[in-house]
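Example 3.2
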Amino acid sequence: MKKALVVLVWLISHGAFAQIVNLDLNGVPARLTPYTDVDGSPYLFEDWSEATISTTNGGVKEGVAFRFNIHDNALEVVNEAGNTIVLDKDYVEYVVLQRPPALIVQSVTPGLLPNLLFKKSFEFIKGIKADDLINVLAEGEKYTLIRRFYSDLVTPAKNSYAPTAGSRFVFEETFYLINDNDVVSTVKAKTNVILKSLNPTDSEQGKRLVKDQKLDLRREDHLVIFFSELNKF
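Structure, written as tokens:
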């Protein structure tokens, strides 16, 4: 858990990687989505975008076309043969998913990160499996902040007004803050909530950072800045 946050910031800011090699992407053929007549989407981004994939043997492959099915936590990619497969996550060290540029341009939400880092091994948190890809926003000696994306399939109860209730996907995101004692807190991306979730010894420092740097912790980019600075102390 306690790895240098500078690695994450470097990846997001510069998109640079130490070793780019030709990798065979392992997985099984992707099938057409079984979710017919369902409103909403099981995908994090409806449009295809590009990913950088790092494997457990140290190789890295850039520019991989992907869609991330967050209902099943399945990463669909296009392999070297041009076939769409579901990536075998046993061989994945981490992935960096590019947010489709159009989503950033069209969004009314400020501070969206262009690239999102996903890692595994957060199974000590209830509801997360060992091979689930989880968004890592900050990672340091004092604090790690992660986010679980999920698309819940909901079927409303039938009633007299809707005799044929339709199913729909409901987008969810849950933030978890992990401190240096590996205590996990479920938090919201709000300044007052984040500040209250800090260790008492870091509370005043956190308040000063927010005030001095004019941070709004509802923003993804400000969350990265906040924990990058806080993990230095």
